[in-house]
Specification:
Heat Shock Protein 90; 5-stranded antiparallel sheet; 52% helix; rod-shaped
Length: 493
């Protein structure tokens, strides 16, 4: 109960770690989404800069009509101060409204403002303007005026008599930009629009990348030895070079593998004839010499020669089988793996008897799968041959076949010296042998086994028997139909 509660308590932490790992993992879709958001931010920034610059930094003469209207009102209502002030106030609000202000907009940093003088006295000042004087040095000319570290654009017009003056004031670009930022007019639209942009951006990118995913899916569905060109031919300029280069790479790999297989096949075939001839001649010479000068030393020397010859024959045979195991596959068919194991045990019992090792079938459960018979025969023969070869005299090799869910499980256990854990992956490499082994061998048997298992979509694991010295080999093969087999190996080891 405590273990269950502890597992439940750790679940949020696992989900958090999993989510963080997914966020950290590079993603092309996420990169494109960030690029779109960044581009939108850049365009928004440029648009705001252009709008602000055009709205507040253009020639103040564009507001000449409003400014002169205020001048006329101030002159005509000189004898009515209350009406004069209300009229100027109404015109000021209308001017600010045209630039996005309003009745309650008292901030001169975001809208044009006015100052009206009459007979040397200030009769009207827009709200928000600094109390310090903002005045031009020349009439009818727009100028930049600095007041308390802030820049203002000002333009003053006056009546013919010079008794009435109206100064139009707008904030400088820097002041407008800072005010715009501080009030969130720049960042708030981005914050509000980004969530609504991400989903359409994600959908558009996913749709745009469908040809890419189609090519990737075709490549991912291939077997380990399928080097055929990609059948999908995209029309898009971005994908065509990738597919063409991939197909060119596959062509070079096919040519390289064909040369390697041709070399191995030619070399093995060329070696078989002289090795067979050498064996025949040595055996004939042995018979001839034993008839005339039989000595114990001669028997020993001839035995060594024949042993080396047998080893060379075995190596050539395994080279041929390894070459064939990399060839194209035949069509898989349904077969009974348990029947195949029994058949091979019966065929190999004579070899085990010569080595004074007993083979027993400890588990025999009916198992049917889709596979290539010759490949599986080669796998079984190599496993049992290795087990009997490395087992001591009088020992037992145990073989079992059973089902485990949707997998067939084949186990072969011996009582030999085993393989150190550090070498259990390397023994599947071609021509690699345990340095401590005293038995002769070519180092190709387990490489052939691994290639057959990989072709059938299975796994192989080496482990200890648990109760005595030795090695347990566990092979797991899927029971379901196979898409394709990439390797076929003939029977024999």
């Amino acid at each position: 109960m405590n273990a269950v509660l502890a597992s439940i308590a750790r679940a949020p932490a696992r989900l958090l770690r999993s989510g963080w790992q997914r966020v950290r993992r590079p993603s092309l879709v996420r990169r494109l989404m960030f690029a779109q958001v960044g581009m939108m931010t850049l365009l928004w920034s440029l648009a705001i800069a252009v709008l602000l610059n055009s709205a507040f930094n253009e020639d103040l003469s564009i507001m000449d009509a409003s400014q002169r209207s205020m001048l006329v009102v101030a002159r005509n209502l000189t004898d009515q101060p209350a009406r004069q002030y209300e009229s100027l106030r109404s015109m000021d609000i209308a001017l600010r409204n045209s630039f996005g202000g309003g009745d309650d907009n008292d901030d001169a940093a975001m809208a044009p403002s006015v100052i009206v003088w009459q007979n040397g006295h200030e009769i009207y000042r827009s709200r928000g303007l600094p109390p310090e004087g903002i005045a031009n040095t020349r009439p009818d000319i727009g100028e930049t005026v600095q007041v308390n570290g802030k820049s203002w654009r000002a333009r003053t017009i006056e009546s013919p008599s010079g008794k009435t003056r109206v100064t139009l004031v707008t904030p400088g670009t820097e002041q407008v930009w800072l005010t715009f930022q501080s009030r969130g007019y720049y960042i708030l639209p981005l914050v509000i629009s980004v969530p609504f942009l991400l989903l359409p951006a994600w959908l558009s990118i996913r749709l745009a990348l469908r040809p890419w995913r189609k090519v990737a899916s075709e490549i991912a569905s291939r077997g380990p030895h399928d080097l055929a060109p990609v059948s999908t031919q995209p029309r898009h300029d971005e994908l065509q070079p990738m597919v063409q280069n991939f197909n060119a790479l596959m062509e070079r790999l096919r040519a390289s593998i064909a040369r390697e297989q041709s070399f191995i096949a030619d070399a093995a075939h060329e070696l078989r004839t002289p090795i067979a001839a050498m064996r025949v001649n040595v055996e004939a010479l042995q018979s001839l010499l034993i008839e005339h000068i039989p000595t114990e030393r001669q028997d020993e020397l001839f035995a060594r020669v024949l042993s080396s010859n047998a080893r060379a024959e075995r190596l050539v045979g395994q080279l041929l089988r390894l070459m064939r195991s990399n060839a194209s596959a035949s069509a898989p068919r349904a077969l009974r793996l348990d029947d195949l194991v029994q058949e091979r045990l019966a065929a190999l019992s004579a070899l085990a008897h010569v080595r004074e090792v007993e083979i027993e079938l400890v588990e025999d459960e009916p198992v049917e799968l889709m596979g290539d018979r010759d490949s599986l025969v080669s796998m079984i023969d190599n496993l049992i041959d290795n087990a009997t070869k490395y087992s001591p005299v009088g020992s037992v090799v145990s073989v079992g076949i059973r089902r485990d869910g949707d997998m067939a499980v084949l186990t072969v256990s011996d009582q030999g010296p085993g393989i150190m854990p550090a070498l259990r992956e390397r023994v599947f490499d071609r021509f690699f042998r345990d340095p401590d082994q005293t038995q002769t061998g070519s180092g190709l048997g387990l490489a052939i086994v691994r290639s057959v298992i990989d072709a059938h979509g299975g796994t192989i694991a080496l482990g200890d028997t648990g109760v005595r010295p030795g090695l347990r080999v566990t092979v797991r093969l899927p029971l379901g139909p196979l898409g394709s087999l990439g390797i076929v190996a003939p029977a024999g080891s």
